[in-house]
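Entry 14. Ran structure prediction on the chain below.
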Amino acid sequence: MVNNSSSYRWIARAVLSTSLLAICASTPVGVFAAPSASKTYSYVVTSFMTAVYETTYMDECPDGLAIDNDSIWWKSHSLVERGKLADMEHGFARSRASVGRGPHGEDVCWNPTVVQDPPLRTVKGKTSYGANLDGTADGHATKNSCAHQKFTGPNGEPGIDNQFYRMVGCIYGWRKDGFLETSADTERKDTSQGVTLIEVSGR
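Output, structure tokens:
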């Protein structure tokens, strides 16, 4: 990840690009037909998934999936302590204990700097959905982005930018049927929060 505001905007564009790609990929041909100059079309998107490229044997994650809070918490205990905790079910109590593992019980999701966790396992594959957002072929630094490695699209498209996928592609919850994706999609339908309106005009 990078730490300047222009790069954050670049990542945001990557998120929007990959999300719209997933929408378009699942939309019947003709729904997004080009509008005439005198018309405006509006679309309400109530359901979408992030376009995360996955292979059958997770070749894109050679180091394995990202280590979750529960695993880090469990391994932080001695064998004797694990014996005492063995009957704790994978429910709210265990979840709360695993995220509240800061030195003073802080929630490490809200305060990630209070602990020293293993480095995040990121995507090492060469293929990704997305688009060329910075206009470069090799990912060299521009006024709006830092230097970065490019991907190739599933159909051979060159110069793909998708650093969001590089970051979350090895996190189980972001992958197919993962909790983060399915839960967020369900919430959009149940609460209408996060629903996206797309307006296309001929102007």
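Residues 1-31 have pLDDT under 50 and may be disordered. Will compare against last week's run tomorrow.
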